[in-house]
Amino acid sequence: MSKEWLLREDGTPVADAMVLSHPEQLARLRIACPPAVPTAVLAGDPCFDRMLAARPHRDRFRRALGVRDGQRLLVLNSTWNPESLFGDGGAEDLLPSLLPRLTGELAADEYRLAAVLHPNIWHGHGPGQIRAWLHRARRGGLTLLDPLEGWRQALIAADAVIGDHGSVTYYAAALGAPVLLGAAPLTGLDPRSPVADFVRTAPRLDPRAPLARQIETLIARHSPLPGPAELTTSLPGKSAALLREMFYDLIEIPEPPEPALLAPLPLPPYEPPLHTAPLRVLTWPLADGGIAVRRFAEPAYEPDDDPRDGDPLGTGGAVHLAVHEDQAGHDAVAPADVIFRYGASDDPRLGPPERWGAEVLAQWPHCALAVYITHPDACTVRTRAGAVLRLAGAPSAPDPAACASALAGGAALDGLVAGGLTVRTGRTTHRVTVTPLRSAGATPPGG
Length: 447
Description:
By secondary structure, the chain is α/β, with parallel strands linked by helices. Helices cover 32% and strands 20% of the residues. The protein has 18 helices and 16 strands. It has helices spanning 3-6, 23-32, 46-54, 58-64, 94-105, 119-125, 127-133, 135-139, 151-157, 167-174, 194-201, 211-220, 226-231, 239-251, 330-333, 353-363, 400-408, 416-419; strands at 18-20, 40-42, 72-78, 111-117, 143-144, 160-163, 179-181, 279-285, 291-297, 318-324, 338-342, 369-375, 378-383, 388-392, 421-425, 428-438. Strands 8-9-15-16-14-13-12-11-10 form a 9-stranded mixed barrel. The chain has a 5-stranded parallel sheet with strand order 5-4-3-6-7, with helices on both faces. Strands 1-2 form a two-stranded parallel sheet. The chain is elongated and about 90 Å long. The chain starts with a helix and ends in a 9-residue tail after the last strand. Mean pLDDT is 91; it is low at 307-314.
């Protein structure tokens, strides 16, 4: 709102109309640049109105991002500024170093990670450089969202947001999402503005402390700050009509008779996480006969927090390595106990899932299970003993690769066909049906 931006050299306003979303902005404009006040028009916030209108579709947006039952969607957001969460590409920038920790410390089936970076970050550094900087986190399951089209739906779907002083993070707070500020500079912000007040009062991320505990505490103790919701717009749901009225007044022609409408937020494409980093899998038996599973992408150390605390557990916990078949390098795949991949069951390049499993087990003698995931809720598993099983859960059940890891974690095959498999991820229990396609030791067709 400074004069340098709003006035010409002769002191007249640059704009014929300057749209404001709330009267508090008009009050600050009167102080910062009185000559521009006659151009001010209170007309709401069309971006926020589109998000408000789309909130009933939150579950659809979560499914589009592959968020499953019991998972929390954590959105990382950075504006374009050297002091932002992403920074300027230097060694001290927080987000590039934070993301591998998030994928390593947050269990893959308990958290879904997505990042929204300001378009100018992409344009300033180039898409190739951005993807290279974030390569390890992407292999760990992070999705980089479209900075122009997908971020609004992600904010609506989010369980929590880690951000900075940019507008996307402020919109998240306005929607009521729990927010942790990873970067909180006040430089360049009007100290009287709602954003500055938000930066001063919102919870802070401690990059040196365990991350999962901070996020769980944030969500459990969350109470929305009143400022963002109240001060983003004073005219919720009315921006389309007010803006059109202003536009037609400026061009001095009558408005059309039909109502003014904003385009609804589209349903994003289905974009589930893809874990190509080696997964350290912890399994242990439950008192009810089920198997608990926790998977971590390239963890640097054992996670600090553990949902097993206080649970009536049995004994016999185990650890194994699960690896995507396309993991680069022989040394990464050779020690894997479980090798998995995603694909259509009729993909002619791979052959039927049963044949693919046989090829994998023949190639990698250490592997105990080969898992071919054909649908979001189903997979075909081939064991070292030759049994072939189909695992199927509800559409929102965990990644079928996690259910297969329950078999590697000690679930006995006897009885699973009749009783099914119970898998727990985090605090959520899932039922999985087990269908035998071929028994152990049987000769395959044509074999």
